[in-house]
Structures are given as C-alpha cells and as structure tokens.
Design a protein that fits this description.
Helix content is 39%, strand content 27%. By secondary structure, it is an alpha+beta fold. The chain is rod-shaped.
Length: 361
C-alpha cells in the first residue's frame, strides 16, 4: 500500500513538472502599442520635444505675481475666462494701506491749508489791529511830548516851580514813547508785508513732500487689486480667498514651492510651440526661410503644420519639464518657437507636451 502511494505521488510530480515546463516554455508576444509613434515626415528631420504655450510676440505665458503681500479677499475670474486689459482679476486685503493713505491725505491737506494761509497774509483783522496799535503809540508819544513841553516851559519861567527830577522823568517818558512808536511802526510794516518768502518756500516744500507721500501710498494701494496686463485668457488660477500671497507668489503644498497666483495667455486663435533642440543637433537646423516643422499630438496620429516664428538665440541647460526647479541634466538645448492655428476639431492646451520634427521645405 505504501509503495502504491509513493508511486502515485511520483507520477503527480512528474506530470506537474511537464505541465510547468510547457507553460513557461511558451513565448508571449509583446502587447501592441496604444498608438503608433509618429514617423519622421522629413528625410533628414530633427526631432525635438515641445511644449505648447499661448502665442506671444515675445516671451511665453504671462505669469502674474502680486507686488504686495496680504490675504486674498476676492477672486474675480475663472480659468478659461477671456478678460480685457485692465480688468480686475483678484483683490488683496488693503485695510492697513487704505488707512495709511487717508492719514497721509489729511496731512497733505493740512499742509496745503497752512500754505494758503501764509500766502493770504496779511489778514485784514491783524492789519487793523496793528494799525490801531500804531495810532495808540502815536497818541502816547504826543501825550508825553505835550506833557514835557508844558513842564519845560514852566521850568523856564520859574525853575523852582518844577523839580529837575520831574523834568528828567518827563523827558525819559517822551524817549520811551518815541521808541515804542518805532517798534509798533516796524511791527505794522511787518504785518503789512505778509508772510516771509522763506516761510512760504519751506511750507511749499513740506506740502510737496507730503503730497508725494500721499500719491505714492495711493499708487501702492492700487497694487492691492491685480488687473490684467493685456487682453487674453486666464489659463490658471492657483490661489483662493483666504490664501496669503506675497511678491514670491503663492505657496503650493504639493510641490512645496512658490507659483504665480495667475497665469495668462493671449487670445487663443493661435498657439505656439517652444521646441528644445539638443545642442548636438543645432548645426543641422535649416535656414529660417527654408525651415518647415510638424507637430504630433501624443496619443494620436494627428499632425499639425507649424509656422516658424523665431529662435531664442541662447543655448541653455536642458530642464526637465516635469519640475523646472531641480531636475537639470548636462545637455544644453536651443529653444525654437513655432506657431499654429488652434485646431477646431482637436483639443490642444498650453502646457501640453508634443513631438516636433523640423526639416526643410
């Protein structure tokens, strides 16, 4: 019985080995590709990676950063929305800056009022007072002089009628009254002349400085509302109400870096492709007048003819498009820019990666 069991187990093991050898000896063919890679349409075409951008006369997409720091209070646009130049896009809390503007406005107005006051001198009421004081001083001098004349005449008639001390006192009173009249007359002339020209100039300088401070603060206040620099399309909104933003942009918790708060592009009747040609292939680029290129949309067999725009005449280190902050390699590339009319039957968006072949016409 025991021998029969061993024989059965051996037979099962042999059968399992044969089946396993058969299964693993079969050759499994590769899976068919999801799509056929684009073939080079040119006999000596150059391949380059490309990225779709909004078409600009110069540069790429418009990255918008705030010029001031603060908390977002309103987001006034949505992605894909077309906006006109100067349209408000979002607002930042401006309560502190608005209070500073009001304070400096009041200071400038106070300085202006004081300047007008200086220019309006002499004030009629002050001049009337100075004139009255001049009349009083003249009357006091006449009274003292009359008193002196009487005492002097009496002394000449009878030296014993008035003492020498009384006569001297009357003489001194006339001198005091005459000096007082001279002071009051000078004060009247000073009042009549109005404000000193140097006081006016000094107040004009103070008013000008305060006015410029107010204008600068008001200009800074306008920065708390971010407006569209050009007419175009909102491609990306990376912030929300309540987020804190700064001139560095807005912090992204996913990439742990700073991004622009908004990305804009031109009106998307046309788009452009920025191609990165490896430095070892730069010498094979045709002349601009003879250059022809085609763009292939990844995942499809669709190709789009491209129109040459310009070469960015500066060879730069190649940057991996997935993360432009850190992923650098030793290869350098020459950016070449083409443009194309946006296809009506195909969705193409800025930021999309494409394959580009460059050849001669």
């Amino acid at each position: 019985m025991k021998n029969k069991l061993l024989f059965a187990l051996s037979a099962i093991g042999i059968l399992a080995g044969v089946v396993g050898a058969f299964i693993y000896s079969r050759e499994i063919g590769p899976q068919p590709p999801v799509f056929n890679p684009a073939a080079n349409p040119y006999a000596k075409g150059i391949y380059a990676n490309g990225i779709v951008e909004s078409y600009q006369t110069n540069g790429a997409n418009i990255n918008i950063y705030p010029e001031v720091s603060g908390t977002i209070t309103q987001v006034l646009v949505a992605e894909g929305q077309t906006v006109r130049q100067g349209s408000p896009l979002l607002t930042i809390d401006d309560s502190v800056q608005r209070a500073v503007v009001e304070q400096q406005k009041s200071q400038a107005e106070a300085a202006r009022a004081l300047l007008e006051e200086l220019k309006a001198e002499p004030r009629k009421e002050n001049l009337d007072v100075a004139k009255a004081q001049l009349g009083l001083a003249s009357a006091s001098l006449k009274s003292a002089q009359d008193q002196l004349d009487k005492q002097r005449k009496s002394y000449e008639l009878n030296p014993r009628s008035i003492s020498k001390d009384t006569l001297d006192t009357a003489t001194n009173a006339v001198k005091v009254a005459r000096a007082n009249l001279d002071v009051v007359r000078r004060q009247y002339e000073l009042t009549k002349a109005g404000a000193w020209v140097y006081d006016i100039r000094n107040q004009e300088s103070q008013h000008d400085a305060l006015l410029k401070s107010y204008m600068a603060s008001r200009a800074l206040l306008s920065k708390y509302t971010i407006t569209a620099p050009v007419e175009g399309v909102i491609l990306s909104v990376t912030t929300a109400v309540g987020n804190y933003v700064s001139p560095q942009g807005v912090y992204d918790t996913y990439t742990q870096g700073f991004n622009p708060v908004l990305v804009m592009g031109s009106a998307q009747t046309h788009l452009e492709v920025r191609c990165f040609v490896d430095e070892i292939l730069v010498h094979r680029l045709p002349e601009p007048s003879k250059m022809s290129a085609q763009m292939f949309i990844r995942g499809t067999t669709v190709s789009v003819p491209l129109e040459y725009v310009r070469v960015q005449p500066y060879v730069t280190p190649k940057i991996e498009l997935s993360n432009q902050r850190t992923e650098r390699v030793d290869v350098r590339v020459l950016p070449v820019i083409f443009r194309f009319e946006k296809p009506k039957n195909l969705s193409v968006y800025p930021g999309q990666l494409v394959d580009v072949y460059i050849g001669e016409k």
